[in-house]
Amino acid sequence: MKNILFFLMASFGLISCSTEDAAVIPPDEDQSLIYYYDRKENGNLQVYSYDGVEETNLVNDTSYDYWWIKVHPDKTKFLCYRSPKNAGLNSYEVCELMVFDIDGKNGRVIVPLHSYGWEIQAHAKWSPDGTKILASAKCPDPSINDMVSRGRMVVFNADGSNPFIVSKFKHDVADPAWSPDGRQVTYVGPSDLNFPTNPEKAEIYQATLNYSTMALENPIRLTYDDLYCYDPAWSPDGKWIAYSKGPFFNLIWHENHDIYKCKPDGTKDVLVLHDGKVNGVPTWTPNGDRLIFHVLGLNGPPPFSLYSCSANGDDKKLILSTNGIYRTTPSAIEK
Question: Which residues are within 8 A (CB) of 49 and not within 5 positions of it... i.e. 6 or more apart?
């Protein structure tokens, strides 16, 4: 691994499974939400939704893998990446960004493979008003005279056009996330620029996006520890940032990656969930009362189960579970 971007993007690829057993779907007591996710079926990753009662296969194309589903704020469409079938989990080097209607129809590519000179594209997320997309890209940045190909944050229009590199740093960053008002961006970057490849020095940062210059300003470091911090996600009210944290190599052993939350200024760093499992990709429900995340564990639950818990970490409950079917990047919207 040559730089921190690969550490940040490949973590769950190190611990993937390929068994294709049937899904276990318990009735959801809260049937006000629809969950969107990907799982492996018939040999490739496909897009599904689950309304609390029934699972629906939205995208079923056996030629490609489809993953990283993010629903538009107006609930009419979703983003996802597409990569060649069996290219490997987290196959960012060979993916392209697509948009589908919310029912899985009318799929179209908005950022083709290696557009804009990007060697890698990843982590695409809608802006709160749905007019722009924030993502990661590996590329040089001539505007700061940095011709080294690094992990950078980019913002472009909802149709994939007019990209700007907004992270004017000479080091790698990844895992960007919008604040609810679209004014701030949270991301992961190295705390030790003398050893930026050390994943235990990956910390959460926050900066203001200047829309006049299309550049991030006044970065603030939010986490201070010697653990791998990743997958930041803002609460809908903007008061908390949830994220995952743990020793990087514990991802291999499927243990002890916890969910935390901190204030946007870095204060009140609070442990939300510790249960000995790998709890990753925390995502807030629309009302901010709960967190949705996927769970890894060797001794149960089965790999890549989908769970939720309250914003304080209690009332953990199963949403979806399988024996080895890959599930990731859960999203949820209100019906």
Answer: 34, 35, 36, 37, 55, 56, 58
**Which tens digit of pLDDT belongs to each residue from 81-117?**
999 998 866 789 999 999 999 999 999 999 999 999 9
Q: Which candidate, 119, 112, 34, 19, places its Cα nearest to that of 69?
A: 34
- Shortest CA distance to 307 belongs to which of 316, 297, 296, 298? 316
Residue 302 corresponds to which amino acid? P
Residue type, 180: P
Mean pLDDT of the chain: 86
The whole-angstrom separation of Cα 182 and Cα 185 is: 8
CA atoms within 13 A on the CB side of 300: 1
- One-letter amino acid at 146 equals D
Buried b (16+ CB within 10 A) or exposed e, 81-105: bbbeeebebbbbbebbbbbbebebe
The two tokens of residue 162 are 């007019």
